[in-house]
Amino acid sequence: MTGDPRSEVFSTVAWDGGMRLLAADLHFSRFQRHSERLGIILPENIPEIVFQSLAEAEIPGEPVVGDDQAPYLIKIGIDSTGEVHLTPRVNGKWPEKMIAITLAAPKWSDSIRGTKHGDWQPYFEARRIANEHGADISLLFDEDSLVDGDRCMPVLLDNDGVAYYPKPSEGALDSVTLEQIRDGIEAAGVPIREARITLSMILRASEMIVLGSGLGVQALGEIDGRIIGKPRGRLYQVAHNAWSHRLQTAWISMEDFEG
Predict the structure, then answer these.
(1) Is residue 228 helix, strand or coil?
(2) Does 90 fall in a domain?
(3) How far is 244 from 241, CA to CA, in rounded Å?
(4) Is the dihedral of CA 207, 208, 214, 216 positive or negative?
(5) What's the pLDDT score for residue 1?
(6) Which helix (H) or strand (E) holds 207?
(7) CATH number at residue 102
């Protein structure tokens, strides 16, 4: 990360520690979408490059998570010259009910906002501030609108029975995790829609969850010292079930791209 948004496009992918990545096809598709916005030309054979590099990646340590999270994560970065870099790490554990604080979202131009780009330091800083305040994550607001989380996509269950997530058109990231479990959530009877999410919506929410390649699905219980709904309710259960199914069925190897 150089501070120049157009220096890199990246994605953090769940890794089994061997030769498989979770939903690699969806991450590669997002690379294409985001690189076009950032003006980065991708190499034509990204899957081949990534999986060849994966064969040389070192296991970063022993897994510490349960079977509802991937054991490892690997950051795949592609810089403005088209060079691919892989950085593996052990996935982290999370409490039963996560605690969040609110911070102002970083300001970028419309072509940059909502992409995984090379100026990610403000998100690292938001994570550090959350930890310093005894919280697990930061939720990032643009004035009164929830835009993003420092490492997650926040989703709330409104009292109308519909689940809502921040609009990518307003700067939110297009979550690969949400893309994987959306159909499962809706099949379980919970409609899920994008929306402009305000603090008043959050305070009246039935519950909130956060999603991410490393997090999987986690319950959010408190924001800025205020209890939010009833954690681990219906939304958590259906989202967690859909995620558990993906962890069992969505691992991809190079052979899946060659078939």
Answers:
(1) coil
(2) no
(3) 5
(4) positive
(5) 53
(6) strand 207-212
(7) 3.20.10.10
DSSP string, 127-162: HHHHHHTT-SEEEEEETTEEEEESSSEEEEE-TTS-
Domain for residue 87, yes or no?
Answer: no
Q: pLDDT tens digits, residue range 233-243?
A: 999 999 999 99
d(CA 153, CA 182): 13
pTM passes above 0.70: yes
pLDDT digits (tens, 9 = 90+) for 199-212: 899 999 999 999 99
Range of the domain at 191: 98-110+139-245
CA distance linking residue 211 with residue 214, whole number of Å: 8
Distance from the first to the final alpha carbon of the chain: 35
Q: Which residues contact residue 164 at a Cβ distance below 8 angstroms, ignoring those fewer than 6 apart?
A: 155, 156, 158, 192, 193, 194, 195, 197, 201
Dihedral sign, Cα of residue 240, residue 28, residue 214, residue 128: negative
For residue 117, give the DSSP letter: B
Contact, 141 vs 103, CB < 8 A?
yes
Lookup: tokens for 238: 């259906």
pLDDT band at 73 (very low <50, low <70, confident <90, very high): very high
Ramachandran area for residue 161 (φ above 0: left; ψ -120 to 50: alpha; else beta) = left
